[in-house]
Specification:
Length: about 90
């Protein structure tokens, strides 16, 4: 996987993005729970990515627990949530 510049997708420079052949991964490395407010923000980031690169699939990789309601919301907007530990990414 290759780290990519978030400014390419009009995102804040603090956003951590990685890309492989079929996916863009949004990395969230923190201890506090991912809640609906974060889910809405991730959805907006995904829309920005899709506007520049339509058809790419987006996954969120996080080390934090994800609220069940938020996980369901992200699934409905075609964003898959993964555990950060399952990926081989060095931050």
């Amino acid at each position: 996987m290759k780290r990519i510049d978030p400014k390419k997708y009009n995102l804040k420079s603090r956003t951590i993005l990685y890309k492989n052949m079929d996916y863009i991964f949004i990395i969230i490395h923190r201890k506090s729970r991912i809640i609906m407010k974060d889910g809405y923000r991730l959805s907006e980031q995904a829309k920005s990515i899709w506007s520049m690169d339509p058809g790419i699939r987006i996954r969120v990789a996080t080390s934090a627990p994800v609220c069940t309601k938020t996980r369901e919301y992200l699934r409905q907007v075609n964003i898959e949530v993964l555990e950060l530990s399952s990926l081989n990414i060095s931050l």
